[in-house]
Every structure is written in C-alpha cells, then in structure tokens.
What we know:
Elements: E1 8-9, E2 14-15, E3 20-21, E4 26-27, E5 32-33, E6 38-39, E7 44-45, E8 50-51, E9 56-57, E10 62-63, E11 68-69, E12 74-75, E13 80-81, E14 86-87, E15 113-115, E16 120-121, E17 126-127, E18 131-133, E19 138-139, E20 144-145, E21 153-156, E22 161-165, E23 174-175, E24 181-183, E25 190-194, E26 197-200
Parallel strand pairs: 1-4, 2-5, 3-6, 4-7, 5-8, 6-9, 7-10, 8-11, 9-12, 10-13, 11-14, 12-15, 13-16, 14-17, 15-18, 16-19, 17-20, 19-21
Antiparallel strand pairs: 21-22, 23-24, 24-25, 25-26
Amino acid sequence: MTSPSSARIVDSADVSPDATLGDGTSIWHLAQVREGVKMGENCIVGRGAYIGTGVVMGDNSKVQNYALVYEPARLADGVFIGPAVVLTNDTYPRAINADGSLKSAHDWEPVGVTIERGASIGARATCVAPVTIGAWATVAAGAVVVKDVPAYALVAGVPARRLGWVGEAGIPLVAADDGAVWVCPSTGARYVETDGTLSKETV
Length: 203
C-alpha cells in the first residue's frame, strides 16, 4: 500500500496493501478499502464504509459511515457521500445465471457511477449505475437516481427529479427578476440557466 506517514488508518480498518492513499487521508473503524483503490489527499472514509476494487476518489472527498461505493465508481475532488449511500454497479443483478449456476465475476460487466467536483449525495440515497452526477449538484436524502443529474441541480424523490438549483455553497438558488439568472442568497454568486443547464456567471 502506498500510504504516506500522515495517512491515518485505525486498527480495525481493512485496507488492501494494493490501495493508494493520499497524504492526510483518514480511514476509520471497520471501513474496507479494496485492491487498486486510488484515493487523493485529505479524504475521509467513515466507520463501516466500503470502497470497492479500483474506485478512484479525488482530493478532499468524504465518504460517511456505512456508505457503499462499488467499483468502478469515479469521484472527483470535493465529493460528499452521505451516511448509508449506495453507488451500485450492476444494471441487471442476479445471484444465478439462467441455467441456475452461481454467477461469478466473469458473468457480468460492472458499470459505475461518476460524481463530478463538489457534488453531494444525501444520506441513504441510491445512485443506480450507470449515471453521472454533475459538478456541485445535490442529491437529497433517500433519493433514487436513475438518470444523469445536471451540474448544480437539486434532485429528490423516487425516482429523483430536479426540484431546483443549488450553488457551490450548497444553498438553493433564488431566481432573479429576468428568470434566466439565479442567485446564491449566501454568497451573491450568479448563475445563468440556458436550455435546462446552469453555468456560473463569470466576471
């Protein structure tokens, strides 16, 4: 395992020697980090969380207690995974093949969830692969995501639907007078909506 001296791994965690952990990363009690995982700097993996084989996590990402991040998930920098979140990897799950034989790793092709920079997945939400969660989007607690989520979108429900927009501070945006511009009530940052997508206004 490539693990700088500043990485913290508690005794009860199960971390593969083939995992790579970035500087300042913490792996907490009963967490499991599998072979080939590549984790950036200053990540946190909470109690009982599972990080599957070959998962990639960017810098400053957090996986809260008992979340399940199945391979081949890809998490960018600054991603938040709430408690008991599940990122799936099997589109058509079965324990056995049609002939009744037990399925093995060779009988299916894993597909992953991609989560872009700064996005947050609320507690007990499920992302059904293959889906992409756009940058700075927020998935509400308990939601079930079955299709791609645009950047800055706030989605909730089963299946998840867009309820509004959120800014980079994570706070729901409010519409400006012209209807095409959205404003963060916390930071004053402005965002422009065009054909169902949102982008941050540049100064």
